[in-house]
Design goal:
about 30% strand
């Protein structure tokens, strides 16, 4: 008799839980769909910007080619309201090769040197006057370039690889 009462009580409890589980599942599905939509909207902007062609010294390459060649572990972000492309990655040679860094310093930079680049995109081109590059090591800014000099440095580094 106690077994029958237990089974009946358990059945009633589980029947009520089934509705609640369905509600929870539907809520998670809605959250997941919203997150997927937001991610694809952002990545579409970034992918379109990454595909833009750069013409420099009679050579053509994409923004994607540029940064994938000169940086490691790249993170991309595009702010469509400001038309700003933010690229962060780990330093690698020959970026800033004109600096007199010894082998120890180069090893530290390769392990934890963070390069941050901000470019303004106007008319499907990088605005050289608004380009900024910052190199940070151990939370300390060790090098910064801006304007046309910064953009030319990125392009010239691309051709060194």
């Amino acid at each position: 008799m106690t077994k029958l009462a237990f089974v009946t009580s358990l059945s009633v409890l589980l029947a009520g839980c089934g509705d609640r589980l369905t509600e929870i599942k539907d809520a998670f599905s809605g959250i997941n769909s919203a997150a997927d939509a937001a991610a694809s909207a952002v990545s579409r902007d970034v992918h379109a910007i990454r595909a833009l062609t750069i013409n420099y010294n009679d050579e053509s390459f994409t923004i994607n080619d540029l940064f994938k060649t000169i940086l490691r572990d790249i993170r991309w972000e595009y702010d469509g309201k400001k038309n700003e492309l933010h690229v962060q990655g780990t330093w690698q040679a020959p970026l800033f090769s004109e600096q007199a860094w010894d082998e120890r310093m180069q090893k530290q930079l390769a392990e934890s040197g963070l390069v941050s680049v901000t470019c303004v995109i106007e008319d499907d081109q990088i605005d050289s006057s608004q380009t900024e590059i910052t190199l940070i090591l151990n939370q300390e800014k060790i090098l910064q370039l801006s304007g046309d000099e910064a953009l030319r440095h990125l392009y010239d580094t691309y051709f060194k690889k």
